[in-house]
Amino acid sequence: MTRLQEGTPPGGDIHNLADVAGVSRTRSISEGRHGTSARAGIPALGPSCRAAFLPDLAKVVEMRQTARAFLGRCRVPEPPTEVVVLAVSELVTNAVVHGRGEVTLQITVSADVVRVSVTDHNPAPAVLKQAGPDGESGRGMRLVDAISDAWESSGKETWCEFRYANVAD
């Protein structure tokens, strides 16, 4: 089961992401307007989407679809959207495979930054690994490192940020 929450900024027009993304919502939408950019330590205003689920590799596809739908509703341009969706895929996969307990994905959009955060109950931080040429895993965090503007893992939370030029409505 996936619990989905979404918050909107004042005057925002996002009402029900669960309907857009085809995800069943088990909690009501909450006003989650204020986040903090871990990189800058400053408040970030903007819409946010939060989904919590038990570890299951099938959730990776669902979270990619949810992220793409949410970013579309937030009018994030196409080039950064595809890169953010790729990061969502890698971070959620990492949490499902290596994490413990419930996984939470949160995406926050501000004027020119998209922040993706994934949490689980494993206290060990995500690390950059050197995968062998025939290795089937070990490249996810290297990919996130290469495509994001900033990332960090404190153990239970791994986040990354993407800056983009906001081509306002």
Overview of the structural elements:
The protein has 169 residues and is α+β, with helices and mostly antiparallel strands. The strands form two sheets. A six-stranded antiparallel β-sheet has the order 1-4-5-6-8-7, covered by helices on one side. It has a two-stranded antiparallel ribbon with strand order 2-3. Strand 2 and strand 3 form a beta hairpin. The longest helix has 21 residues. The termini are far apart. About 21% of the residues have low confidence.
Query: H/E order of the elements?
Result: EHEEEHHEEHEE
Mean pLDDT: 78
- Rounded to the nearest angstrom, the distance between the terminal CA atoms is 35 Å
How does the major sheet shape up? 6 strands, antiparallel
- Number of contiguous helices: 4
- Please tally the β strands and state the result: 8
Report the β-strand fraction as a percent range. Answer: 25-35%
The parts where pLDDT drops under 50 for at least 5 residues are 8-43
Shape: globular
Output the radius of gyration: 15 Å
Instruction: Give the strand order, joined by hyphens, for the main sheet.
Output: 1-4-5-6-8-7
Which structural class fits the helix and strand makeup? alpha+beta
Q: What is the share of helical residues? A: 25-40%
Map the helices and strands.
Elements: E1 2-7, H1 17-21, E2 34-36, E3 43-45, E4 48-53, H2 58-73, H3 78-98, E5 103-109, E6 113-119, H4 140-147, E7 150-153, E8 157-163
Antiparallel strand pairs: 1-4, 2-3, 4-5, 5-6, 6-8, 7-8
In short:
The protein has 169 residues and is α+β, with helices and mostly antiparallel strands. The protein has helices at 17-21, 58-73, 78-98, 140-147, and strands at 2-7, 34-36, 43-45, 48-53, 103-109, 113-119, 150-153, 157-163. Residues 8-43 have low confidence and may be disordered.
